[in-house]
Specification:
With about 280 residues, this protein is α/β, with parallel strands linked by helices. The chain has one domain: Alpha-Beta Barrel (TIM Barrel). Helices cover about 50% and strands about 15% of the residues. It has helices at about 10-15, 25-40, 50-55, 60-70, 85-95, 110-125, 155-165, 190-200, 215-220, 230-245, 255-275, and strands at about 20-25, 45-50, 75-85, 100, 130-135, 140, 170, 175-180, 205, 225-230. Helix 4 packs across helix 5 (about 85-95), helix 6 (about 110-125) runs parallel beside helix 7 and helix 10 (about 230-245) runs antiparallel to helix 11. The longest helix has 22 residues, at about 255-275. The chain is globular. The two termini are about 20 Å apart. About 50% of the residues are buried. The structure holds 1,3-dihydroxyacetonephosphate (13P). 1,3-dihydroxyacetonephosphate binds near residues 23, 81, 179, 228 and 230. 1,3-dihydroxyacetonephosphate binds near residues 228 and 229.
Length: about 280
């Protein structure tokens, strides 16, 4: 059994807030998350998807995570998001990530259980926590693409995945999607309640960008102990960079990128508050 020491989601689950997990693609987004979390005195996750981990290099993103974990007394948790590759999960554990996700949602339940278990055994021996996925997160993005109708988590599958793997937290498909929503998402709160009653580990809400705040908070009241937000940060980054490049005539990358970082920070702070995670470092 994981303790609150190495699984902060046990704290948020118990205290009724959610730890926000923000996706980063480079060091500037990473820095924006660190600074916003510091300003809000918040426990947060920094999350790299497979594409980021591979393009930055998992040893480098792992080293950033080791440093920020130490400098924040364990209040910033570096997480590998949506890895469909067991070996990448193991490499992230070896590189010093504090948390990894194995996303077996595209596999049969049996394969999902088998591979999640392999990751859990490897990670737990090294003090790292693991998130699994059951049901499917909709949408198109680097985190995966799914547009079918059978996205909804089945309670008995979630129970099996938890019982047979000993995983620490679970992302569940209840209607959220990665990327911007074309129309307001229809979130199945009833199914979330049923899973929450049957599975005792913290649950994770993916596809945060664009979900109305009151719906996010209803999800948190019903067991979501971690909320993932990515697209909003990336869209803000690119919009600010595009705008800055129209007027900036210098050669100083830091000047340019600090403008970009400063545009992202308020968005992160807002989401920290939506999740009720502001001042959460005091709750440990
Ligand atoms: P959004 O990009 O839709 O905010 O979702 C992020 C996410 O769920 C990453 O796993």
């Amino acid at each position: 059994m994981k303790t609150a020491e190495n699984n902060v989601l046990l704290i948020s689950d118990k205290k009724g807030f959610a730890v926000p997990a923000f996706n980063y693609s480079d060091i500037w987004e990473y820095k924006a998350i660190l600074e916003a979390a510091e300003l809000e005195n918040a426990i947060v996750y920094t999350a790299s998807n497979m594409r980021t981990a591979e393009s930055m290099g998992v040893d480098y993103t792992g080293a950033w995570g080791k440093t920020s974990y130490i400098l924040t007394d364990g209040n910033v948790i570096n997480h590998l998001d949506h890895s469909r590759d067991v070996e990448l999960c193991k490499a992230a554990v070896d590189a010093g990530y504090q948390s990894v996700m194995f996303d077996g949602s595209a596999l049969s339940l049996e394969e999902n259980i088998r591979k999640t278990k392999e990751v859990v055994e490897y990670a737990h021996e090294r003090g790292v926590v693991v998130e699994a996925e059951i049901g499917k997160i909709l949408g198109r993005g680097v985190e995966g693409t799914y547009e079918g109708n059978d996205f909804l988590v089945q309670v008995e599958d979630a129970v099996k995945l938890w019982e047979q793997t000993g995983v620490d937290s679970m992302a569940v498909g209840i209607g959220t999607a990665h990327g911007f929503y074309k129309e307001e998402p229809k979130i199945n709160i009833q199914r979330l309640k049923e899973v929450n009653e049957s599975v005792p580990i913290p649950l994770v809400l993916h596809g945060g960008t664009g979900v109305p705040y009151e719906v996010v908070q209803e999800c948190i009241r019903n067991g979501m102990a971690k909320v993932n937000v990515g697209t909003l940060l990336h869209a803000t980054y690119i919009e600010r960079l595009r705008k800055a490049l129209k007027t900036y005539t210098g050669n100083n990358v830091n000047d340019l990128m600090e403008m970009v970082k400063d545009a992202i920070i308020p968005k992160i702070r807002e989401w920290i508050r939506v999740c009720g995670a502001d001042q959460s470092r005091r709750m440990r």
